[in-house]
Design a protein that fits this description.
Layout: H1 10-27, H2 31-35, H3 47-62, E1 65-75, E2 78-88, E3 97-105, E4 111-121
Antiparallel strand pairs: 1-2, 2-3, 3-4
Length: about 130
């Protein structure tokens, strides 16, 4: 007596192939993980990227509108960015209250801290 024939449908072929693939991946370690390089260090951000990112992150933190980046300096451990912020809108615009903030970031541009250096009226000449 001959054994009954099984129906070979497309669905059963897919499930058989998937189970063989799953069994093979469980049995042998992934070659990618063994040959893949370790997580590459992020490249250092450019000055422009750092300035833009610092202004946007500061605005998100203090919920105020960022203005111009007035200073950008690089140190051994990161960047120091000075950002003008519109703190209080007035009419006329020349009487708006502005704030000057110092934002410290790491070499990649990630914000590490900030502080307000001073507040001033937009139209009043100050110590520059």
């Amino acid at each position: 007596m001959t054994p009954p024939k099984t129906r070979n449908t497309a669905a059963s072929k897919k499930s058989t192939a998937a189970s063989k693939k799953g069994a093979a991946s469980k049995a042998t370690p992934s070659r990618r993980s063994a040959s893949a390089p370790k997580a590459a260090a992020r490249p250092r951000a450019t000055a422009g990227e750092v300035a833009r990112h610092a202004a946007v992150e500061l605005a998100d933190l203090i919920h105020k509108e960022p203005g111009a980046v007035t200073q950008l300096t690089h140190a051994d451990d990161g960047w120091c960015v000075h950002v003008e912020v519109l703190e209080l809108r007035r009419i006329p615009e020349t009487t708006d209250m502005m704030g000057l903030y110092e934002v410290m970031t790491d070499d990649h541009g990630s914000l590490e801290g900030y502080r307000r250096l001073r507040r001033y009226v937009r139209g009043v000449p100050g110590e520059e």
